[in-house]
Amino acid sequence: MLRTNPAFLHFMEQFTASSAEGEAVAIKTFAAGTRLIRQGDTISHVYIIREGITKCYIEEDNGKDYIFEFLGKGEITGDLEGIRKEKCLCNIEAITPVTAYAIPHTLFSWLLVNNTEFNRLMLEELVIRIRQTCIRASYQQLYPVEYALLRLLALEAEQDIVIPKKDMASYLGITIRSFNRTLKELRSKNILDPQGMNIDLSRKQLEEILRRFEDMG
Amino acid sequence: MLRTNPAFLHFMEQFTASSAEGEAVAIKTFAAGTRLIRQGDTISHVYIIREGITKCYIEEDNGKDYIFEFLGKGEITGDLEGIRKEKCLCNIEAITPVTAYAIPHTLFSWLLVNNTEFNRLMLEELVIRIRQTCIRASYQQLYPVEYALLRLLALEAEQDIVIPKKDMASYLGITIRSFNRTLKELRSKNILDPQGMNIDLSRKQLEEILRRFEDMG
DNA sequence: TATAAAACGGGACATTTGTCCCACTTCTTA
DNA sequence: TAAGAAGTGGGACAAATGTCCCGTTTTATA
């Protein structure tokens, strides 16, 4: 759920410090709640997050949001639009204060062609993104919400970040009402702790429950 | 829904015809119903479809399928696994007889590094795939099935291909029962023709109906 | 051509999810 | 500190979707 890319971050640190072209890279800061990128806009920079957490989401015309990922250190965004000049697909919104490298499209394109390492990092990043998006789209479509919610809470516990409830619901593509209802059911089954939304099981027990969903739906 | 990539196909035709390295590329044929790639396998080739149509889908442990795309001429598959050596994410199954270029991973990697055009084509392909997957995941999650079904039927009419009902349902991530029910509702609203599943509206009328969904859900 | 196998279409019912609404808390800020 | 705004949690009902099942039609094949 919170993607990071240490290799990309490391590359940028090196690149800005040691290369002449690195001077074209600016560092921008964004307050929590502001957007790095606005869906539908045409942009001229690619961002690589240096610090902070953002959410990447589509706002549908009916007013609902669908969050794809939370992006942290080293994640790149605006890259799709840098590679194929199209309007921005998603909103990228800071949910904590964010600082990011801003790379002009000209430099971005130049790096893709002239820097093998950068090109490689970009390819791998795109591949990871496709894999994760596909895996999630599939199980959110084919398993009950309870299953997806448990997986989400497990991830949240591993990385210890706190995501607003509203955003978790949007990540699952459901309403807050459904989200709350499912939480309550999990509590009544003693899978979550009585008040909060923490998983009240050992890793092993959790896996056993997830497996049960998978064995027969 | 049926993705194709003429530029990729064209590249392969040129490459196999004119380059020495092209000799490493084999042409394989697959009967309808057989798989080019099996989910979970480790593979050593990338395929580019020369002729025919395949479906790209994940089989979940609970027995349900989720189809991401139907892939036609010029589409590449096995590329994710060629870039990052991981187990296959999806099944690729021929739904018509298929012939495809089979490119060994060694050559694939070599092309990515040494052939700027190929690298470029690959980047663009990945970007397109991400965009489409994201867009679809979002609206399938946030709009009623009726909306997604209409969009699907509109696409099917444009390209004129026939997809089995079972597969259309899997593409939408729903059961055949729900699929039939929705068809019936659309017929009773005179949006589809009385017997079949063809859209019985002008392009304009259809867009009007889709817009209504988008304006308020 | 006869028969089995597969696809099709839909009724009846259960489950899941959304919508609407309200009471209660918490947070702003005038 | 009071008043309004925003967030929380959940009841009641409506709508959407899945499950199970059965009779019909189409397709494949012996």
Structural class from helices and strands of chain A?
alpha+beta
**Helix proportion range of chain A:** 40-55%
Please state the overall shape of chain A, judged from the principal axes of the Cα atoms.
elongated
Oligomer: homodimer
Beginning-to-end CA distance, first to last residue of chain A = 24 Å
Figure out the total of helices of chain A: 8
Arithmetic mean pLDDT of chain A: 91
Largest sheet of chain A: 5 strands, mixed
Q: Which spans of chain A have pLDDT < 50 for at least 5 consecutive residues?
A: none
Strand tally of chain A: 9
Order of helices and strands of chain A: EHEEEEEEHEEHHHHHH
Instruction: Report Rg of chain A.
Output: 19 Å
Major sheet strand order of chain A: 1-6-5-8-3
Q: Biggest interface, and residues per chain? A: A-B, 44 and 44 residues
Beta-strand content estimate of chain A: 15-25%
Give a verbal description of the structure:
The structure is a homodimer of 217-residue chains. In chain A, the strands form two sheets. In chain A, strands 1-6-5-8-3 form a five-stranded mixed β-sheet. A four-stranded antiparallel β-sheet of chain A has the order 2-9-4-7. Chain A is elongated and about 60 Å long. In chain A, helix 3 (105-114) packs across helix 4. Chain A is 47% helix and 20% strand. Chain A has helices at 6-18, 79-83, 105-114, 116-142, 145-158, 165-172, 176-188, 203-215, and strands spanning 2-3, 26-30, 35-37, 45-51, 54-59, 65-71, 76-77, 91-94, 98-104. At the A-B interface, helix 4 and helix 8 of A face helix 4 and helix 8 of B. Chain B binds a DNA duplex (30 and 30 nucleotides) through residues 144-145, 164-166, 174-178, 180-184.
